[in-house]
Amino acid sequence: MTTDKVIFDTDPGVDDALALYYLLRHPQIDLLGVTTVFGNAPVALTTRNARFLLRAWGHDAPVHAGAAGPLTPDMPPEFWPTSIHGDNGLGDHPIDLEPQDDPDTAAQFLIDQIRAHPGEVRVLAVGRMTNLARAVQMAPDIAGLVRDVTLMGGAFRVPGNITPAAEANIWGDPLAADIVFGAPWRVVAVPLDLTTRTFMDSAMLARLAQAGGPGMRLVADLSQGYVRFYQAAGYDGMLVHDCTAAVWLTDPDLFTLTEGEVRVLSDGIALGLTLMNPADRQGPLGAWEGRPRQFATLDGQPDAILDRIAQVCTA
């Protein structure tokens, strides 16, 4: 089996933890490194959390801290989703590492790795797109050298989860997202249109924890606050947004792509709205003129995606 060289850009984050575990367990994935960004917690905590998870799972991939705030000017004040991810970003699971004062090296790490492995690197970004946007601004040549970019983000035909207009990762830095969608590389967005249908119930999570050994038990343990968040809304389980995007890398046959130019609104009440001009639409392009056609997995097979997560995480 050939392996894919992957950089995981993340903000752990409970569902990020499951996605990272999936990447580490999958024999097709060669994890080159982890870059971190603000989002589910401040970047000092997301970086500490990434190191904690990698150590717990016996992996020595390098971790590079990235953006502490957005590129978008005049953003509303950031609020940390502690009701979902806990005060420490990992469901308040005990963590025996302290945050460090890391330099901001994520964008340069992305540039260096993409240049070192032309045509091979796949970037999976499941947080704000700030590191990616900064990397392609700093080194536009990487757009022609990267294999592809996968994003967990956007809400194209469904309501957002941070506002009615916007999904959280896009909302957190909409200018960065617009830059990423507008760069001349292949982007595949895995949006709420599909991830809100990919729901792991509590019984399945418990089965995976029992069958998957200590690594999967850690995922289940730190996910309990996340499950309680959904239980308060009447759902017994959790959405696996980020791991759904990870499955796209290994099992694209479980997804259905829609193609078109994408813009992201960066001001007003629709801040963070993702708008695609579908490839089959007839009419003037306006602000979409000159943009590259990108892709979004607006549909797919949620049950099969969950089955694949189970297979990999308990193998």
Automatic annotation (TrEMBL):
Query: GO cellular-component terms in the record?
Result: cytosol
Q: Pfam families attached here?
A: IU_nuc_hydro
Question: What CDD domains does UniProt report for this protein, alphabetically?
Answer: nuc_hydro_CaPnhB
Q: Where is the Inosine/uridine-preferring nucleoside hydrolase domain?
A: 6-281
A GO molecular function annotation here is: purine nucleosidase activity
**Which biological process terms from the Gene Ontology are attached to this UniProt entry?**
purine nucleoside catabolic process
Alphabetized UniProt keyword annotations: Glycosidase, Hydrolase
Q: Please state the span of the N-terminal signal peptide per the UniProt entry.
A: none
Entries under SUPFAM superfamilies matching the protein:
Nucleoside hydrolase (SSF53590)
Q: Does the keyword Hydrolase apply?
A: yes
According to UniProt, the name of this protein is Nucleoside hydrolase
Its source organism is: Paracoccus hibiscisoli
Its lineage reads: Bacteria, Pseudomonadati, Pseudomonadota, Alphaproteobacteria, Rhodobacterales
